[in-house]
Amino acid sequence: xxxxxxxxxxxxxxxxxxxxxxxxxxxxxxxxxxxxxxxxxxxxxxxxxxxxxxxxxxxxxxxxxxxxxxxxxxxxxxxxxxxxxxxxxxxxxxxxxxxxxxxxxxxxxxxxxxxxxxxxxxxxxxxxxxxxxxxxxxxxxxxxxxxxxxxxxxxxxxxxxxxxxxxxxxxxxxxxxxxxxxxxxxxxxxxxxxxxxxxxxxxxxxxxxxxxxxxxxxxxxxxxxxxxxxxxxxxxxxxxxxx
Length: 243
Ligand SMILES: NC(=O)c1ccc[n+]([C@@H]2O[C@H](COP(=O)([O-])OP(=O)(O)OC[C@H]3O[C@@H](n4cnc5c(N)ncnc54)[C@H](OP(=O)(O)O)[C@@H]3O)[C@@H](O)[C@H]2O)c1
Description:
With about 240 residues, this protein is an alpha/beta fold. About 40% of the residues lie in helices and about 15% in strands.
């Protein structure tokens, strides 16, 4: 690794879209830290990529356990002294989620805790390292379901997808994108929300139109944006999404 090699952290990288983001970033020459809440699963995923000659390593990061996030930040600081790319990919859906009249409060709490608060926690903890980069990039894995405009549009194909916990947690994540992009506007850090498309993973029960590798493309594109790129955007494969 030389001084110009970029360093990325991808959360929830042991499977699904996250693993493919890690693979594609590493194929682009980035050194990738694959975050996983179960370190053994992370190591298995990292070994597979390392055997293909890619520069990756697994690190324990559980969005619910601040101590794992802080330990990861210390390890990244000691080894690399900075972080160039943070892909906030880890996320959940919940079987007890549903419309506002029926979702369980426990499910809504779990969704907010992981998808929003956990992601905010990782972002805050990694920010000092991102500020050490000449061109920090933050990609928040969102969903078109997190758009207030789409949820309120009776002509949208997503109009009936009433998952108050999931959709609200991703709308909150979008708020993080908007506010952080504004707060960091005088720094080299670029922050965007990226909806990957409808991807066949465990999260969707294997349903979807895209493979995880296809779902990783747009997040990877935004992780590798050049210096003149726009910050504080919400995009999906078809283009810009209205907040
Ligand atoms: N698939 C889609 O169609 C789709 C569409 C829009 C947005 N997204 C978003 O894309 C992201 C990736 O989704 P996916 O479809 O690839 O899902 P997935 O295959 O279920 O993978 C989710 C990843 O997040 C990890 N994770 C969950 N809770 C965590 C926690 N507390 N701490 C650390 N890691 C945690 C999982 O770890 P474990 O293996 O330990 O559970 C797993 O690695 C999510 O943010 C999702 O909301 C997906």
